[in-house]
Every structure is written in structure tokens, then in C-alpha cells.
Amino acid sequence: MRAIAERLRTIVHEAAPEAIERVRIGWRLVAFDLPIKRSGAFFAWVGPEPKHVHIGFPKGVLMDDPGRVLQGAGITKYARWLTFVPGDPIDEQLVAELVAEAARVATIPKSVARLGRGDLSLDA
After folding, report:
1. d(C-alpha 56, C-alpha 54), whole Å
2. Sheet holding 53-57, edge to edge
3. In terms of Cα–Cα distance, which of 33, 11, 36, 29 is closest to 21?
4. Are 28 and 52 in contact (CB under 8 A)?
5. For residue 105, what are the CA distances in angstroms to 2, 98, 119?
6. Distance from C-alpha of 30 to C-alpha of 32, rounded to nearest angstrom
7. What domains, with CATH codes, occur in the chain?
8. pLDDT at position 111, please?
9. C-alpha to C-alpha distance for 17 and 19, rounded to whole angstroms
10. Which band of pLDDT confidence, cut at 50, 70 and 90, is reported for residue 107?
């Protein structure tokens, strides 16, 4: 699991170099914030579990997901994620695109965001 988690952390840092990483012990995950608010904007996480590793996005419901690869619909209201188990290939380009999209969504003001839509833009 460690190798998967480390690879996902690296992809997040490459796709969003401005991201600030911090460990959220109570949540048992590594969180990534953008330095755009006083306390940062939480936009992604890597969560290792005993049998798999998630990379997730707290506002995933707002993200463009044309390939419909994100999991979580019907399970959580807002968060979406990908799950990797040992032996799964990591599509690094796809993960990097999702990280960039999550960072974009994190910058959308609440007054503009229309929940449940994956076609948000700052022009809306």
C-alpha cells in the first residue's frame, strides 16, 4: 500500500505543485490544500487502508468526469474517489487530470457552484 500511496502523493504534487500537504491523523489520510484561503482550500486526499488506497476529492460531485471513473455516487453527497489495490495499474495522466480538475473546482466560489453539476466554470 505504501508504494501506491507514495505514487499518488507524487502525482498530486506534480499536478498541483502549489498544494500544501498535511497529515490528518484522525481521518487517517494525507490531505492536500490550496493556499487560496486563510486556512487553505482542501481539494484532495490520499487515504491508505489495509487492503487498498484511495485518492479522493471532497468536492468531487462538482468535477468534470467525462469517463465516469470516479466512485462515490450514491454513497456520499459530495466526495468522489478512485481506489487502487496492489497490482492495479495507475493511469498517471488520468489521476493528474483529476487532481487538476479538483484544484479548479476548489477555486470556484460557493456562490457560483451549482451542486450536482459537472460542467462548472468560472464564467458561470
Report:
1. 6
2. 20-24, 29-34, 41-48, 53-57, 80-84
3. 33
4. no
5. 28, 10, 10
6. 7
7. 2-106 (3.90.1150.200)
8. 67
9. 5
10. confident
- Report the predicted TM-score, pTM, of the whole model to 2 decimal places: 0.85
C-alpha cell at 25: 491523523
C-alpha cell at 123: 464564467
Query: For residue 62, which of 105, 16, 111 has the smallest C-alpha distance?
Result: 105
Q: Burial level of 91, CB count in 10 A (0-12/13-18/19+)?
A: middle
Q: What is the pLDDT of residues 19-73, one digit of tens each?
A: 999 999 888 999 999 998 777 899 999 999 999 999 999 999 999 998 999 999 9
